[in-house]
Amino acid sequence: MLPRAFWHYLAALYFAFQSLCAAFWWLILAVEPRARPLFRPSATPDSALFAFFLPDAILFIGAALWAAACLVKSPQSARTPLVIHLGGALYAALYCVSQTLLTGEAVLAALLMTTCALIGTFLSWKTAFASD
Which of 28, 91, 107, 110 has its CA 20 to 30 Å from the CA of residue 100? Predict the structure, then answer.
């Protein structure tokens, strides 16, 4: 069995890395229009995709960075940012899965968001929500 501190640092690294990757993803979408069709159905305008930027920046990126900092200092204090982050991640994952099921498109978005939500849930369970 791995020590609890291992999970705390692994989760902190994961959430920090996930935040950086998400910020980079938004940058790519902003500067490379050819990347956008991978993440939205063809009948959906780019504006519908970019409408998710502000909630993503706050709930997914910002809360994950906040959680990463808390996990290093005091894992119990990470509960609030993790709940905020996981709420945003799970909502986005369900939206993307629904979108893919309805249109057969944007499969990459569904796969990436579902993976993020599942890994984040697992690491939250192993750290801030683990019983002593």
Answer: 28
Place of tokens 């799970």: 90
Which residues form the domain of 79?
A: 4-126
Whether 131 has a pLDDT exceeding 80, the answer reads: no
Task: Give the type of residue at 31.
Answer: V
Amino acid letter for position 99 = Q
Distance (Å, whole) CA 28 – CA 102:
26
93, 101 contact by CB (below 8 A): no
* In a domain? residue 90: yes
Q: What is the number of structural domains in the chain?
A: 1
Separation between Cα atoms, residue 83 and residue 87, nearest integer Å: 6
Is there a domain that residue 132 lies in? no
- CA pair distance 31, 91, nearest whole angstrom: 26
Note whether residue 95 is domain-resident.
yes
Helix (H, G, I), strand (E, B) or coil at 130: coil
CA neighbor of 70 nearest in space, from 61, 79, 62: 79
Q: Is 131 part of any domain? A: no
